[in-house]
Amino acid sequence: MDNTHHSMKSIIIQLAVICGLSVAGFLGYWGYTYFGPITAPIKQYGHADQAVEKVWPIRVTDARYGNHSVSRIVYGEIVTKRHHSLAFRTNGCIDLVANGLDVGMAVAEGQLLAQLDDSLERLNIKSVEARQAEITAKRNELHTRIRSLNRLIEKKTLILNITKNTLNRQKELRENRISSAESVEMAERQALEAETSMLSLRNELELLKASLLVFNAQDDHLLQDLKKARVALKNTRIYAPKNGIVTELNLVAGNCVTAMAPVIKLVEPNDVEAILEISTSLFKRLIQSGPITNRAVEIFNGGEPILGKVKGINPQLLEDQQLVRVSVSMDSRSGAQPLLIGQKIRARIVEKALNGVLELPYVALYGEGSAYIVVDGRLKRVKLDIVYRNNTTIYAKSDIEPGAQIVVTRLKQAVDGMRVSVLDQTSE
């Protein structure tokens, strides 16, 4: 019984010692963390009991002030305000689809996207052009004959005038008994023949002009037919009306389609936007850090991120206590891969801008707001005003001079005045 009692007493004493040591260790660590390390340099003693100050090897980073930003990853969807529905304006079978045309492809205004079999339309154009060429040839021939006939009428007019003058002269002479009756009769016959010839030429000229009017009317009809034939040919093609991105495609070479049935949907880049769903807690932090409009956003879709800016908040969704939706306008040219309507996306939005701050690894932090710099081979404790921190990095404002050497080695017993040796940055 005595032995048992003695054993229990021994165990209790051991447990008390262990607990005391644990409490002492905790208090020591707590005191170091919240009150800072001790302020006396560590010394070693030589054989002659003389103090020998130890030199601690450390690594440093140069103090650099710069502008940084804190970003958050959010998720959303690609949407569009409107789109262009493209269709053939006539029935037919698809003969050609633009090389490489696919959903997500960027197209340029005026680019040929697809074409129906247009053999009948081309044949109709050739037929109209052939009839037009025939009419043009006949019109040209008529113009030539009319010009020739006008010149002949001018000559005949001169002859008619001469014969009439001769007849009048003969009649005067006859009245004065100078000319014979036979001379008058001959002058009358010549005048009549000239007048008859002139009348015939004028009748022929009127007929030619009437024929020309008929051909002109036929040519006008052919011009209208040619315009219609060319429109019919154009209706067998689909061109991009604007610069845009293909969002839907229902085209297969050889398939037949109905007039006005949409086969391509196209959106203009300015009409494409991202809708991001942001938690209300993050949204509050965004507002606290500054205006949310024009806040920078990066959308990841493979390759280089697509750049964007916040356009506004979706007002009808603000009653939701969990999520807030914001719309983002994008520069689609900045990304390597096209965005598809309805595509789910991952994006990075700037939460806070940090201007004129130090960026330091977390290991440089001592206590809650201090760091050490190296001055003349010794440590000097300096204060940091931490504006943001995460698991690996701190961002702070400080009175540290740019270019100063900030300690980035964790020292268990760092104190003001401790002698240190800066390691070569390339050494292990």
Helix/strand layout:
Elements (H helix, E strand, L loop, with lengths): L1 H34 L7 E3 L5 E3 L2 E3 L1 E3 L2 E16 L3 E3 L5 E6 L8 E2 L4 E5 L2 H57 L5 H54 L2 E3 L4 E6 L6 E2 L6 E4 L4 E8 H9 L7 E5 L5 E8 L9 E9 L12 E18 L8 E6 L2 E6 L1 E5 L3 E5 L7 E3 L12 E3 L6
Parallel strand pairs: 3-24
Antiparallel strand pairs: 1-2, 4-23, 5-14, 5-18, 6-13, 7-9, 7-12, 8-11, 9-10, 11-13, 14-17, 15-16, 15-18, 16-17, 18-22, 19-20, 21-22
Helix pairs in contact: 2-3
Question: Can you describe this structure?
Answer:
The chain is of the alpha+beta class and 428 residues long. A six-stranded antiparallel barrel has the order 5-14-17-16-15-18. The protein has a four-stranded antiparallel beta sheet with strand order 6-13-11-8, with no helix packed on it. The chain has a four-stranded antiparallel beta sheet with strand order 10-9-7-12, with no helix packed on it. It folds into five domains: 1-35; 37-59 and 365-428, conserved putative lor/sdh protein from methanococcus maripaludis s2 fold; 70-79 and 268-354, Elongation Factor Tu (Ef-tu), domain 3; 83-116 and 239-266, RNA polymerase II/Efflux pump adaptor protein, barrel-sandwich hybrid domain (OB fold (Dihydrolipoamide Acetyltransferase, E2P), Beta Barrel); 120-234. The chain is built from four helices and 24 strands. The chain starts with a helix and ends in a 6-residue tail after the last strand.
